[in-house]
Every structure is written in structure tokens, then in C-alpha cells.
Batch of 2 targets.
Target 1
Amino acid sequence: MVYYRLASPNPRTYIGSGKVAEIKSAINALDVETVIFDDELSPGQLRNLEKAFGGDVRVCDRTALILDIFNQRAATHEAALQVALAQMEYQLPRLTRMWTHLERQSGGQVKGMGEKQIEVDKRILRTQIGVLKKELESVRKHRKQYRSRRVAIPVPVVSLVGYTNAGKSTLLNQLTGANVLAENRLFATLDPTTRRVQMQNGKEFLLTDTVGFIQKLPTTLVAAFRATLEEIAESSLLVHVVDISHPLAEQQIEAVEKVMSELDVSSIPKLVVWNKVDRVDDPQKVKLEAEETGDTICISALTGEGLDDFCNAVHEKLKDSMVWVEALLPFDKGDLLSTIHKVGMVKETEYTENGTLIRAHVPLRFAQLLKPMRHLVKDTSISQRG
């Protein structure tokens, strides 16, 4: 591992010539095959570094490494499409370094073999990128239709977000009995998974597990995983899961918040969950810090500790996003009344000659469904007096 502090990156080799020579010596001494840079390198920097280190040494930047990991983790057709698109868009400007062994120039105006091969490969790659984008757009439309059907069932949607390996999938499995892959490794989950959670008080919400974030997440991945990340924008509540036992927990929190700000979801209510509290040296101290922070719950998704507190906090947070309604339901709408009890918070029920008069906090989209039967709908700020 080599660390290097730079005022600004070298435009040719990212690092200085002295550090290039030092790394080359280490490569020869240790018989190194791959050199990984923890930052994104330009095509020119990659080409110059490989030339400096020797033709048999592969130079890999942060983006290429993450793409390789994503490629190994892609378990579904959608994830495979998303990763393939990101890889191709990453490779497109870097094709020139693949053909340096061929002739780049020839006499007169005739292009060299290498240059012609580059043009052919770029054209093929652009065509493949176009095909993948069309397939992903089809996936995006299908997911949008799925979300539309889900909106018709007015259960609040809670999305788990957080740094990779924070324990989001384990939390989903604990609460829902799902069998989502949950392993101690980076990016174990690439596809969003949604399951229904039934709380002890009979209330329900949908819980969605999303792809884990990471510091300096490549923009190509953010773009490729647009269909996945759109799930977050449709949420009633975001649950930011933090591995509080990790020594770099603060930096991971900042990385997640940075990506969230880029997704423009600041208007969605958020609940912070400090996970893996069973692994910290002083759990009681951490719990006291969480109480002082406010809107923070301590849990262990692995052991189940704190899950009741988590569900109660979700319940209270969802209430903030609801509106107050008074609606007269015909007696033949018993299923609707049952749904209100599941997804809303019923304040009062009164049986009249014409039907059941119900006063409750309900999700905004559900309030729209009740519009023909409503007596009164107030805004959220007024409703909280109810």
C-alpha cells in the first residue's frame, strides 16, 4: 500500500515521476501483476502508467475496480444490464490503449491498422451501448408500471439506504422473513427488493432494500442504476442504516448523504439507524449518544435487538407524512375500512345511518382515493392537532 499527498494530480501520470519509479521498483521486487489507484484516472494517465510500469502490468483505477465487483455481484438480468452499460461507457474513451501494439500511422493519408481497429471497436461499442440503453429503458418502464400498481395499494413505502455492507439486507430479512442475500462483503445487493412488514400494532408498510453506496461513487454507476435509485424517490420514508461499529462510520455517513443530495430526495422524511450496536466496545454509551442526537435508533439487525423501537419510530415518522381526513364510508366498503386501519392511524370511528364516519391520519395518496367520500381534508400541519 502506497500513500501519496499531492497538491494536484499530474496530468500525465496522476502521481509524480519519483513515485512512478518507486512503484515500478516494488512491482519488479514483488512480481506484481495489477496496480490499483484509489481514484479515477483519465485514459491518458492509464496508458502512460501502464507504459511506465511495463506492458504486463495492469493499471486499474477505483471506477474499474468497483465495476469489476459489481459485475461479480450482478445476479439478475436487470443488474447485469446496468453493470454492462456502466462498463461499456467506462471503456469507450479508453479503447485507444488496447491497440498500441498495432501500427498507428502509415504513409500518405491512409490510416494505420491500429487507428482503423479503434474506430471499428468504438462503433461496435456505441451500438452495444444503444441496445443496452433501450433494454434498460424497457426495464424502467416495467418498474414504473409496477410502482403504479403498488401505489394503488396505499401502503407506505420505506426505503433502506446506506453505505455498502451496513446491514440493510440483514435488517430486511429480520423484519420480513425474506431470504435476501446478506453477506459480509461489498455490494452484495444490487437489485431493489421490496417486502411487506407487519408491525405488532397491526400496521403495515413496504420495506425496500437498495444498492449500497460508497465514497466517490462513479457517476457512470449512478446513471446506470437510475431505475434502481428511482425506488428511493418514491418512498414515504428513508431509513439511513449506519454500521456504527465501523471505524470510518462518520465518513461513510457523509458519503451516503452526498449521494442522497445528488438524488434530490431532501424533502422525504428520514430516520437514522445505527446498526451493529452489539459490536461496539460500549453499547450503552452509543445508545446515549443516539438519544442526544435525536431521530436515531440503535439496533442489531443480526440479533434482533432494538427492532421494536425501530418499528415504533417508523410508525411515528410515517405519521408526519400523513394528512387528516374525515370520510363517510358506505357499509359495503368494509375492505376500505380495513385498509385504513392497516395503513393509517384511526382517531375515531362513528357508525351512522348512511355508513361509517371515520376520522384518521392516512397517506396522502390514499386520501386522494377517499376524496369522493371525504367530509374534510386538512393539510399536514393542521392535522397534527388531531
Target 2
Amino acid sequence: MAIKTVIRQVKDHVGETVVIGSWINNKRSSGKIQFLQLRDGTGYIQGVVVKNEVSEETWNLAKSLTQESSVYVTGVIREEARSKSGFEMTVTGLELIQLTDNYPITPKEHGVDFLMDHRHLWLRSTKQRAIMVIRAEIIRAVQEFFDTNGFTLVDPPILTPTSAEGTTNLFHTKYFEEDAYLTQSGQLYMEAAAMALGKVYSFGPTFRAEKSKTRRHLIEFWMIEPEMAFTDHEESLRVQENFISHVVQSVLKNCRSELETLERDISKLENIQAPFPRITYDAAIEFLNKEGFDIPWGEDFGAPHETAIAEAYDKPVFITHYPASIKAFYMKPDPTRPEVVLCADMIAPEGYGEIIGGSQRIDDPELMEERFKEHELSPESYQWYLDLRKYGTVPHSGFGLGLERTVAWICGLDHVRETIPFPRTLYRLYP
């Protein structure tokens, strides 16, 4: 009696007859032998059909199979050192589910627009599957890190009445008779949760209505946003570098074959271990001016600036103490130098830009009210946020990690659009 299994588990069935539901990834023939490249979502294996060892019906079916045809394949699993997986399947029977005709994505080269129009099918490719497996491992490692370090998962709302960082980049909608927006960050709500639970994190979708077409930007993306009560800026930086180290090392441990599929330089990831280097905004400005960039103190960094700084290091680098004028209203000023704030952006190596932004938050009620006036924020709309400073205020810090940029960096991808199953970009809402 054949055992139903999946390709990932064939190592447990060497010498046994199994049944695997699969698709034909590719096929080639050599006279009286058909070589079927099978995939089932968990992995890949070659099925070998020998004409003299199967029925005429099975042989003819094997000959007729086309790319992405779906079949149940019965056969014996054996070890095969020449195979990438280390195993091969000697096919004894085939049951056709569907014979595919004119599958749109062939082994030839296709343009990006064509592939994005067929994203629902492009996901089946070897490379895209590897990216999705690594994305899933990153998510698992993220949750493992926080769940084992005393954090509680809290889900902030997606529909909000106000903005976290200004209303210019928000998607507006109607909430019955009221105005509402798709969230651009769960941070403010996570601050409230931290006052109840100590250390918390959220993981969910966020939306930015930026008309940006760079390789680093998506309209809809996923954020991990921890907040920590009784935690200062320095403590937060240590959490961030240990967090990133854990995620990268988890991917190296559990997704080695997927990284090899992507032809990722694994040595560059093996070096990602805490602690990470740090550079102040002041030092970064000085460095950039020496490198030929004309950027005055007080301006924010763009992609070329971040890339230049990152190239000086082989690990992620923190840029700390930005001017208060270019950062969010809630960031705590440095007590020794109030024109800069206790914040940091973590810049990934190899030109992938900012993957984490974080800060110590203002905990002084009077200073927060001053910031509200400076930024012309409505006290009525944000009264609940002001209450957090009014009733039991404490030092607290937090940060946000963009999942897709992190996936792009770890996978070594040229564009962030491949890091999410169905990307939403400036000109793409299909499929």
C-alpha cells in the first residue's frame, strides 16, 4: 500500500512506495526514459519513468505531460547523491489530475510587467518560492524572538481616526459618517499597550500613500513594531541588534537551500552578529561631505546617502541622534543637546537602506503638549495619547521594522516587489 507524503518528507521513506500530489515543473526525455521534475510546494524531486518498467498507459501519460500539469505520482524513493535534494523517485504509476495547455510563463525570459501581471503564476517559480519560504522563516523568527523575550503580541487597529506621523501620506476612507484612514503605523497604540503590558509588539499591514516608484517602496507593507516600558534609548538599541542577529541566523540555519537557490552570498549574512557599529548624525554628515556629497546639517538622508554610509561597514549600522526638526513629534530630545533626539535608524548593508527606525519616546506631559502645539496636532483627536503621559508616565522606547525591506536584504533582491506575495505599488493593484 503506497504511503501519501510530500517531497519535504521523502527522506523518511527511502525504499518505500509513496504517492505525491505534484505539478510538472519541467520535463526531459532520453529515449526510453522520461525525467519528470516534480514540485509540490514543499520541495522538488526528480521522478524517473523507465519505459520497460511501467505500463504502456503510464508511459504514454508521462510523454504527454506539459509544464504545470497536475498529477498524483506513485513510486519508490531512493537516495541519489547526484540530486540536489539527495533523493530521487522511481515512478511506477501516474494519475492525471489536469493536463495544462499553453502555460503562460515558460523557461524563456519574460519582462517584469508580464511577470507582475501573472504574479499568481509567477509565485510557482523556483526563485519566487524560495523568497516566500525565507519570508515565512523571517516571520517565524521575529515572533520567536519576541515571544521568548517577554513581549506580548498586541494587534493595533487598521482603521484609525488620526495619523501617527502627519496626514499627507494617508489613505482616506469613510467610517460611516466619520473620516477614517488606513494605518501608517501602529506605534501610538502600541505605546498604550506597553503601559498595560510592559513589553509588547505588533505585526500587521501598514499603508503609505506615497507616490514613490523606488525599488525600496511599497504602498502596502508589513511592520513589526515593539514598544517597551521602562526602557531607554541605549537599551532599545541592544534589543534591536540582538533581534536582527537572531532573525538572520535563523534564516541561515533553516533556509540554506533557499538562499543557495537565490545565489545569495551567504558569507555576508554569516557576519551579521551583534553588536552593530554606530555613527551619530553629526559624524554621518561629516563623512558624507568628505565623500563628495553636498548635504548640510539638518537635512534628512536619501537612498544614496544611506548606501554610502552602509558601504563603510559589513554589518548593519545605527545612525543616531538626528535633528529634532526632521523627526517625528514624539521623539525624546537628548537632555544634553535638545536640538537632537534620542533616535536611531538601522541601515542594512549592501545598499538596502533603512530597515529599522526607532527612538525613546517623550514621557514628559508638558513637553508633549508643547510638541502638539508646534506640529499643530489636535489635542481632542489625540487626548487618549496625551493621557498616557498624564496617568503614570514612564521612560519608554520602541522601533519599527519593515518586513519587506528586510526580506529584500536577506534574500539579496534588486527590488522590494518580489518580497511580498502580491505587491501593491504606485501603478499596480492587480492581481
